[in-house]
Every structure is written in C-alpha cells, then in structure tokens.
## 1
Amino acid sequence: MRYVKNFDIGAAILFLLVGGAFVWESRKLAATAFGSSVGPDLFPLVLGSLLVLLSIKLIFESRKQLRASTGASDAADGEKPDNTRFLLILGATIAYVLLMEPLGYIISTFLFLLTGFQVMSRSGLLKSIGISAAFSILVYVLYVNLLQGTLPPLPAWLGM
C-alpha cells in the first residue's frame, strides 16, 4: 500500500507540473482565432487548471491515506500497481492524439472513451457505447455550435 500511495503522490506531482506548464503556455496563445469566438488558449487553460486542481486533491488524499495506514504491513495489503491497465490507457491516449485529425473529434473521442471504460471495467459494453457516443457528440455540438469553436470534423471518406 505504501508503494502505491508513494507512486500516487509522485504521479500527482508530475501531473501538477504538466498542468502548470499547460496553464503557463496557454497564456502565450492568442485569445481569439479567425472564424471562432473561442480562442486556442481556452482548452489548454481550462484543462491545465483542472489537472492542477485534481493533482493537488490527489496529493492530499494520498498523504492522508498514507498517514492512516502507517501501522499496516505492506505485505498484508497485497496491492500492486496495475501496469497492464496503465499501459493500455497510455496506448489509447497516444492513439487518440494520433487519430484526432484523420478520424475527427467525434470518432476518435468515442473510441478513446470506449477503450478507457472497457479497460477500467469490463462490464456493460452497451452502456459504455452509449455514454461514449453521447459524450462525444454532445461536446462536439456544444463546442462547435454554442461556443463557435472548431474541432476536427468527421472524416471526408464518410461522405458527411
């Protein structure tokens, strides 16, 4: 348990630094873009801020659990990091980044979310498909129509 909590704290610090870099660098981007009322600085700023806040929360929760389990034996917990799931999510994230332009936002986000849901919990395939599709389409429609932003559209080979 101690190893897992120390890993959580280390990962949270890494994500805190990455989120801080996102926020810092997003301030250098233009506030507006041609043909869009939402500038390219919005997503990195919001996502970086969210990553910073969640990282801080993870640090505090991990430290609290680490203090609470100080007397417990590490061998008795039997909890080890799940490297297979981590590598699958990491691979899905890399594929998501690489497929965003060729497949468009909706399809690539749908596939990424579906993969993530199934890696984390193998049950409820139909539920995962529904949530992934609804989230992908809803975010696309809201961002493009309501906020007047731009996201990669569906691929041309679909004929839409």
Note: The chain has five helices and no strands.
## 2
Amino acid sequence: MRIYSHFVSGHLINQFLIVNDETMEAIMIDAPDLDGNIIEIIEKNRIKLKGLLITHSHEAHVASLGTIFKIYNPSLYAFFDNVSGYEAVRVNDGDVVSVAGMEVRCFHIPGHSLDSMCYLIGSALFTGDTLQSGYIGQTRALIEKELLIQGIKEKLFTLEDNTLIFPAHGSLSKIRVEKMFNQDILEANITIFS
C-alpha cells in the first residue's frame, strides 16, 4: 500500500490517495480539488480510482465531486446515501468494506458534523476534521464537543498506539501522541472544583 498526500491550497485541506500496489487500484479520501498534480499522479502511475471516501459533506471536502465523476468512475462512500446530489454507498459505524482490494474499517464520530466518518486502512487512519494533530474538529455547542471527544476516546483511542493519523488539516500524528498531547482532549479531562 502506498499513500500519496496532496495539499489543496484553495481549501487548506490534505487530500490522500491510497494505492493497492498489487492491483494499482486506489481510494481517494475527500474531494476538495482535482488539480493537475493529483491527476498526474493517477495517470502517470496508471492508477485506477475505484473508491472515494467522504469524511463529511462540508463544501470544502466535496467541492470537486463533479469534476472527479466527469473524469473517473469511482464508487462513492459516505455516511449519507447522497452527497451533493451524487449517490453514495452508505457506511456506518463498525462497517468494514472492501474498496480497491483493501479493507476499510469505518467509524462514525459525530460532533464536528452529523455525518463525520473516519476510515482505517491498514495502520493508516484518515480522520477528516474529527481528530487532528493537537486538537479536535470545531463544534458549535458544548454537547457536540463532548460527543466528539467521547467518540474519539471510545473508537479511535482504542486502536493501536502506533496507528498513523492522516487528518484533513495540519500534520500527521499517531494515536499515542494524541492521547498524550491533544490539548482539546486534555482540557476536557480537567475537572474544576469550586
């Protein structure tokens, strides 16, 4: 398995392409942009884009769906069965699907958005905006923040400590590092007595 990372400056989002070395079939994580760089990687390496996993349907993460479907014909996977007018295979918490010959474990962790999904492929965890290096995704209310932190602790922090985190924003991390240093989660553990 190979992972290509592409920074989309227009949306300040990391986009990932995961390639099955045996079949040269691939999965793309989110669709913020489809520029010449990512197309060149796909075409130059004769990669067959088989799946597109959506971490959540905020506009910046699905902006290039139309362009992708004009050029390629991947199956779309998301929490909702329709994303910006495109039919998707609905995935939910605990689902395991085979995409491009690779096993994908799905984790539904609402909080940042109702449809927030994380995907584990091998030892690589693609977290979208749910969990990032040092912080968690933005929420609009305290209850959403608590729901998000609870989901991270129960579903992601139970994974192997050396699981690599590939977030939509910022640098890569590991589960172990986030358990020790994630400021949002550490602050949530502090109880103030008055």
Note: DSSP finds six helices and 16 strands in the chain.
## 3
Amino acid sequence: MDLLMQCAREFQRLIPYQYHIVIGRKGNILNFTISFDPADFHHLAGLHKLKDNVRFQTGKRSDIMEEILNGKLTFIQAKQSVYFSEMEPRLAPLSELGAFLDSNEIIFRYNPKIHIFSAIKADYLLQNNYHGTLVYLFLAQRTGTNTQVCRTFFPKSTKDYTVGQPRYTLLYKEKKHLTTGEAIIQYDRLSSK
C-alpha cells in the first residue's frame, strides 16, 4: 500500500476518538483533550513542505486528505518534489500514530520561548520511541475549542526540543469513541491513590 495512503488511513481511524489526559508535576495537575480533524493531517504528514507541488498546496486541507485516501494524490507524486526529503522522515512514524498515542510515554508542558529558533507554537510536547528513534508530537489548542490539536510531528534530529521543558508525570489517560461513547482507560494512576 502507498505509504502516504497508509498514513492517511491511520489518521482517519483516529478521527472518531478523543484522548483525555491528566498529568501532574510538583503538585500541579493539568488536563487536556486531544481531538482530530481531517484538515490536521496535512501538516502532520509534512505536506506543507512540498512547496513545488501545487496539488498538495492548494485546496482545503481536509479535501487533500480525502484525495490521498481515494488514491488521487499519492506517495509517488509527493516523492517527485525536490522538498520530499524534508517530509519523508515523518511518514513511517505517522503510519503508527495511534500506537504512539496509545502508549504511555513522556509528556512535557511546552514553552516556545525556550526554543526561540523554532517557529513551533505548542502547549504540550509528547515524546515517544519509534523503532529506536525518538519522535516528537506537538499539541496546541484548536482554535475556538478547548481541545488540543496535533500540531506537528517529526523524528528528533539534531535539536532536542525537550531541553528546558518541564516534564510531567502521566496520571490518567482515556480514549473515548465520540459516536458510541465507549471509553477505554489506558492508564490510571489516580484511582490507585
């Protein structure tokens, strides 16, 4: 299967869900909810980096994901871009985004002022291991809501985005299907106290 389509299918599987997460540090407890929208996929997959491919750059972001799912936009088309190497490292980890989110790895409260060299605006940074490579997922508040959106996602390269960021302890995590209301508690340190 086309790797780009595989990533889009993985993301599509997450759309009917929300993750509710509670974290703590030094007596300070924070909670947030992650939600998903088809338009979010474009940036997560790094399609914004393909500046020389008009089909990936124009139109509604959610329509682009739909065109990938329908086979109208393909991995081969993305690979033809001279900028493809800037997005390629994201794809293999993105094809397993659900597993990344289901695991109980490391969460930081993200302060963009610490990394003034970066244009990333985010509230939280999740770090996880993907086949021996650290991968970052940045979360930011979705405009007009009280949920977090997966803002950007990429493997660690030379910059360590966790330096200087306050690390939090995961206390509770629940994955909820929005249509059925079924909730799966993936981690619960709160009820054991």
Note: The two ends are 46 Å apart (CA to CA).
